[in-house]
Amino acid sequence: VLEDARAHGYCVYTHADWAHAYVSADGEHAYESACAFGAAPEELRGGTLYRIGPGLFEREKEYAHMLDGDGLALRFRFSSDGASVAFTSRFVRTREFAEEDAAGKVLYRGTFGTMREGGMLNNAFDLHTKNLANTNIVRWGGRVLALYEAGQPVEVDAETLATKGVDDLGGRLEPGQYFTLGLPEPIGSTIERSAGLGGRAFTAHPHIDSNTGYLVGWGWKSRITAKAVEISLWEWDEDWREMGRRDYVMEGCEAAPHDFGVTEKWYVMIQNRLGIDPLPFLVGAKGAGECLISQPQEPLLVHLIPRSTQTPNVAKPVEPVIAEGPRESFEIHVALAHDGPPLSRGETTSEDLENWVTVYTAGWDKLSPGVFLGEWGSSDPWPFPVPTELSPDFNNIPRTLLWMYEINAVTGEVKRQPAPGCEDLCIDHPHVSPLFEGKRACRYVYASLSNEVRVSGPPLGYVRIDLKTGELQKWYASNRSFCEEPVIVPKANGANEDDAWLIGLIADHSRENPAGISRVVVLDCADIAAGPVCSIPLRNRIPHGLHGMFVGRE
């Protein structure tokens, strides 16, 4: 059955293959690999694909959670003739990584439960968690930054990926752990600084707004006792000149959002309802992430925050809007946000264009009560050997859908339903063409695709979703191949939105390679169903990664 293409779309796979997703990388690499068939399209030649994800999962013993894995940065430089890529992989050698590497053991606590040896006595009241630098990698204004939402950016060399050090974004990110206890002034901040607290972390999901060409990102810190998150949003041009800033406090929020959206008028923050019980973290019993408690009985909140920069001919809102959404909801990634009703609503009025905001998100079908992400660390015993227990068991994980939110900025009404054509799908990591980020005219969303039978499962292919008609274009790699986030690259002088390329990284398993081997594929966004126009095999399997971006030749 695993070899039968007729099973595509039915969530047919084996955990014996998927279990290799979070096995540590077999070292760092630098080599050239030739195309197995086809050639890289013209728009990719001379350009660079950057990717990143967790890549090391043990020191003396296995880490507690795959999201505690140390960041592994990847660089794929396409040759000028499109016949090969030069591949480089390097661990992001933060100060904590370097110290642990020298010691050969865990010295710092991880966000999701990895601890030093010695139990609670050896971890209690140490509030410093390791900057894993494992979630996203962005190249902007001549700098390449490895990002982790519970830490500060780490700059790496654009060519070699050698680590340069922490980047505080021109002093905008204060040093220290990203929370404050709200101690009384004038001595409160002094005490917190001496304890290594009161710092500001940076989002792992900045966005490049196609309306202005600016990089938009935000720093944050948690006010633990006040149950609020303090946010500063910045916009930069390609020379890192600050073009705008907006400060905002999310009251009643105990956990910062993972992602956000940018329209011509608004920053869109979706507040998932999570509480935090800090005591187990303080006494060294749990990681900070393990102390998050799901609150499905509370309505999700949508924050519309006026942008600090002005788009020509667009009226700028003055006050923020907070609107209540559905209960039992949890949103992860934002594919697209724009002003006005959804494209599927057809022709619209100027009033509706002014009053409504639309957001497309990848989110769970249901948020259950209890410890947040508890399902990701739970699994029944398998009746066959597995290389690690860290790879999530999809039998215990909610399905991820592409949701469509409609928010009325005047009345506060929020409507949510699956995006057109997505009722049966399980997807993740949705993206749009960079030329259409933040625009209502955007018609297509591209995502990794698991199945079409309304169950949770690993990503086995790619899908193009038509937001106007619900039409789907699907391609499955195989029942034994796992597909990472798509990266979309517009074609030069393309006349249509889908004149673009999709770059994917896939791990293939087979009888010959049961542990898997990775390859880079390129698909034509106008004909996803046709499959790759180019495939470049690598020499090793790369641990299942998270995010990345493409930078064209300079």
UniProtKB/TrEMBL annotation:
What is the catalytic activity of this protein?
all-trans-zeaxanthin + 2 O2 = 4,9-dimethyldodeca-2,4,6,8,10-pentaenedial + 2 (3R)-hydroxy-beta-ionone
Q: Describe how the cofactor binds.
A: Binds 1 Fe(2+) ion per subunit.
Question: Which keywords belong to this entry?
Answer: Iron, Metal-binding, Oxidoreductase
Which E.C. number(s) belong to this protein? 1.14.99.n4
Q: Which Pfam families match?
A: RPE65
Its domain of life? Eukaryota
* Entry's family note: Belongs to the carotenoid oxygenase family.
Task: Give the PANTHER family listed for this entry.
Answer: BETA-CAROTENE DIOXYGENASE, CAROTENOID 9,10(9',10')-CLEAVAGE DIOXYGENASE 1
| Protein name as catalogued | carotenoid 9,10-dioxygenase
